[in-house]
What we know:
The complex is a heterodimer. In chain A, 47% of the residues lie in helices and 11% in strands. Chain A is α+β, with helices and mostly antiparallel strands. Chain B has four domains: 6-195, no CATH class; 211-274, Arc Repressor Mutant, subunit A, CATH 1.10.10; 282-435, no CATH class; 437-481 and 516-578, no CATH class. The longest helix of chain B has 27 residues, at 328-354. The chains are: A alpha+beta, B alpha+beta. The interface between A and B is large, with 119 and 103 residues. Chain A: Mediates inactivation of the TORC1 complex in response to amino acid starvation. Required for meiotic nuclear division. Chain A: Belongs to the NPR3 family.
Amino acid sequence: MSLPLPPASNLHAVLLITKSRSLGPRLVFHYPPLSPSAAALAANKAPAWFGNQTSTGSIDSHSSSSDWDSSTENEGAEDDVEVGSRTSGGRGSGRTSASHRDRDRYRPGGGGAWGRQENIEDDDADLDGNGTGNGFRKENGDGKDKGGDYDWNTVLGFKVDALEKMLCPSKAFNKRRFELGVESIVFVGAPMFVREDALWKKGRRKKKEKVLDPDLLANLNIEEGNGDSKSSVKGSGSTVMEPFDYPQGFEPGYGHGLMSGAASGAVSEAGSDTRSNSTTENAAPDMTMFNVVFVLNPPALEYQLRVQEMYDNVTRKYAKALKYEQARSQYVWKESKKIIDIKQRAKENNESVSATWRKIINTSALAKSIAIMFDAISNDKIAHVHFDATFSTSFQIPQQDSIPYLPSALEPQMPGLWLTTSNVVIDDNNDAPMTQHAALLLLEDAETLVKELEGDAKGNATALAYYIRAIIPTKSLLKISVKHNIQAQDMEYIARHLVYWRRARLIAPLHPRDTYIVSPNADMSALQAAIPSYSVRFPTLPSLPKILSMLSGTPRHFRTFIPTNEHREAYMEILAWLMRGGWVTQLRTFAWVRVTAEIKAMVAQEMEREVLIKKAEEARREASDTDSLTESLYSDKRSSFLSAGRPSTPLRRTGRREMEDENMEASTILSPRTGYGWRGSPARPASDAGSTSSNRTAIPLSSARPASPSQITPQQTKVHRPSPLHLKTTSPSRPPPTFSPTSPSVAPGPPSPPPSPQNFTPSLVLSPQKANSIEARWLEKIGQRFEEPELREHWPMLLRYLDGKHALEDVGTREGLKRKKVAALFAGVKEGGWLVIVRHW
Amino acid sequence: MPTRAIKSIFFTRFHHEKGSRVLHQIPEGSITPSRAPSALATPLFDFDSVTTYLIPTQQFCDRLLTFCTNHYRVIGYPVCIREGKYSRNEFIFNFAVVLEEAVADWVAYGEVVRKLGRLLRGLEEQGGFLSSEEERVWEDEGWSEGRGEGAGGGGRQGGLVASKVYALCEMVLEDLNNYAECMIPIDDSNTINLKLFPTHPPPPPIYPHHVPLLTISLDSLTSPVSSDLTLTRVLPFINGIHSVSHIAQLADTDLSLTRKAIQHLVYYGCLILLDIFSFGAVYAPTAEMGWFVTDQSVQEECARYVRVPHIQFGKGSMKMGSESERGGAERTSIITEASQRSDVSISSSSTTTTNTNTNPNIALNLTTPTTIFDALDHPSTGPKISSETLIMLYASLRQGLPLKSWVLENLPLLHGIDIRRFITFGIIKGILYRVHKYAIATSTFPASSNRSPAGGLPPSLPSSSSVHRDSDQSTIRGTHTPQHPHPSQSQSRHLSHKPSLASTANVFTAPTPHGRPDEVQGPRLESLIDERDIGAGLPLVKFLDGMHCFDEICTELGLGESVVEKKVKGAGEVQIVYR
């Protein structure tokens, strides 16, 4: 029942712990400098569990938090006292609390976003959260190892030495997920141990894969033009795009084995020259382990998801990057010693924590990278980390860029998220990758992007800028690449990267002939801020509310809103702007073929005829075998009579008795509900067509049932919407669409005697591509009914899209046909009343 | 709760000389190797590498401590009792459970472990429950060589008297795995009661314009649902038609308390939230439509749910439908009849179920698909509604099309279908969404709002501007604007002498389409309202930021939609947005 949840890292601190021969376990660095105490974090979480503070949930959340306080041996109380005295000072450096509060407000899953009244609470919690000023407490004595010379004794409300001990796992945790929960906060780390041979990485046997660092591309340092980098670039592209392909187990998480992600790339480029010096230096390694620990406090129900996300995307990748650097140049240990040094000195001079931290961050690249990590990840942004001059990379927890369904009032809201089914993977093998046909909607202005790019690119910026400037949301990538003479693969590659790093979104190309509506998921709370920025952008055009009002009536082609041809471009720009903000979404058309009773009757008639012909033929064959029997002679005559082409009347007479039986059978079948009884019924049609159809109905009916989520009645679900859509985006490998249960069960046995339309009910063909033989015949028959030859010719092609999963708007681009022509074709089909059309996003 | 989720329960003690030891483990050999005949071949994980987390430093004692190792999640609650009577003045133990790492709702187990830890602490402090049997245990271990021996020792071969703690471990494991709860008497005055409570997500905020609908029939429960007075008073009025604020009125309860009571019901999953049904509302299909089309069982469920048990009304409307080229007034009556039908179906369904209930009021609760089945599932009550019809009907709803116009468009198909239930079913299943209506004050608004309270606003000004806007809108909206004006007067008259239900559905949102010609024609009326309500127009301002849908505004102000719309338009430059 994992619903898609809004992004929320729940990150509250990042710690770096090392274990060395000289110093033992050591908490080298933590960020933010004034971390909220664990007790405060735990207390903070109560509203997230129960929405309103006032609610009297049965689980003792409140008692737990209060107990927590009491059990921390009045540290909590001391914290509180100190908060009062030094909130102002604490705020400056401990900026985390403020930012958290902001984020929590947009986080419906958490407490803050549900109720407006809770903002007050948040503020309270905030004060608690700030109660971290343990830094100035002089507490001599307790630290056994440190000999009481520590000035700053607690981090997160824990004694530093206790924390150090807890966060230094045994070697059994090497390269495994380290997960330690203390009440409701959790420490997630990826401990890295030095190898037995005192190296930090295996001696290089061979380059595993020639991979350019994919994450470099996050900084948009895409190296284009280098002919030989092409292949590697593509390879890495694919690895980057599948960061979530792990089959929800933890194997890859534990393994660390594969060289995917951050550190992989640099190995190849820098490995050779650095390995030698690292081996010499490593002769007697001082540091034996380091552990980067991310401190989260996820809500109970999101626990597994959040921890997994953090570990897979951030913790593990970051630790690996550090390990790579460590192997290369003793980076971690050198920097750690630097940090420890500064701390030591500051401690002796009684300097303030925040000032010292500023100094540390300015001096140590490692400390700075941790700070950057924290600031970005805790705000659900992308962290660009520069380890040193040659190695920089990016980290993020990937976010959804669209949802296919609208959250109900009882589900976590994600206002502003793009609402569309166009990203839902349709699990058809014959589906060409849509990327080429999609357009790229930049989420920032091209110029902003280009500038950003020039900021940290090293030379290829101009080439890239050219690409980025070429991207417009009204043209598909294919068209753009043709027009600007860009290789299609390059284009796709850039597109994928821009999408992965949240710079762009793949959309169906914007077109004036498409229909757009105000998205039901639009974030109306952002409206007041959006109005001015819109009017700056489009000062002479109708205001934002006006445009939204226009788009919220009866759905019409966007074209009809454009007053004149000169306005066209401007209006398309407005549309792109609206799409970007999730204000509007495309209304897409989906259709199924509706088979009328008439068609069914016709097909049934035909089939009946065939059956009889066949029977007659069989009979004749038998007759020829046993020549002597007179009866067979009769039948022979009969069959020849039949084959002469006058089937109807004699036909009815011959097989009357058995037909009556079957007739009864058929009449009970008329109601779709009795579909089960159809299986193995004696009325199995004699023709091949009939028998296969009954076979095929029987299987999916039984198999589709349990899989179908509809079984969940509203009383069990808390209106957790039981739809396949929920699964589609998360799991790329959706089980094949369940076979239509409706139509085949309605399918009458061919032999019902007078196959007149009254005996049939119209039904839908749910998936023409997977139609059973009777359905296929219906479809064929419908195809024959079209008058225009063009329609008849294109009918099989159109059928591919009439399964309710493909938007008819996409047909033109996919098939390379003119939009107008496709529209005309569908209009022709629609005119005949053959379609059931649904329009949604 | 997953069945048999607890893989192991074990009791660890810190001994001042021997260090951390597992004294009891269920099953044998799950934590440390054991020679017992039934022991597991290999422990679930390596005990030595995790002792730090089972017997941590004092800082981490008396807290729920969990860690993951070897794909298992160990949840412990280390307890440290400091008292002079123990050696080194402290007594440290941990009673921990082992789950598979991927168990989603492990927090429920955490709560049990926490409770157990505290209880054992209490028992130990009271009478040395743990330490009293321990001397023997440690001695046992002294005699036997292996550490695993000691683990089993307490329970089996070691003592003449079976260890109480071992028995406790065993019972907790078995009972929690089998029944998700347990009750273990310890002595005359102490009993351990444990239960796994599943964690529910926090309930969303409840707004006055939400319409609650029960998903289970609470009155069928033998014991009263709650001793909460508000809840008891509110319950009879929850029927999927009344909004929260109306329920508060009917039950004569405080609105905020009512909201909270309903929030509780949501929390426990026995209630869902709908929107206020009215024939002026706009509904459109969602992407779940594809699911509805392909899933036959939902279609059947729908057919059962929406069918009107008595056909007479349906026949009437059929006749009307065939003569659909009648005057506007006639159509109005069709509409009202349709609403009547919704109405009647409710009351009739309630009459079918009242037999079982003593209180006829409560029978109104039975409006959900699941509870109504029995009432409606008599095959003789009406013709079967074909799946195809349902699909066509849902598909024909669209943005910009008020329900009443839709009814007129599809009258022949609606034979025997209760429209309100039809819509409600769509909402419940997520096939439909309500297209809400918002008013957004544009930039010119603050100026006019500043002026209007000052009273200097000439009555003609807002009306003329609104005339202008209206024409604007009609060009934008195009053809859908219903050409059949329903005199809201006559309709409300019609509704007023009817019993509660239909009228309540319409009290908040009188189904008046905006941009209607007669609205444009009546500037006099509008200016009248403006003059009268110029002071009352003030509270409107806060609703015009696009975050408050008309349902909400109407509920807050206690006014009909048409009145609110007029007021809103009179208040200044306003754009109407449907979302």
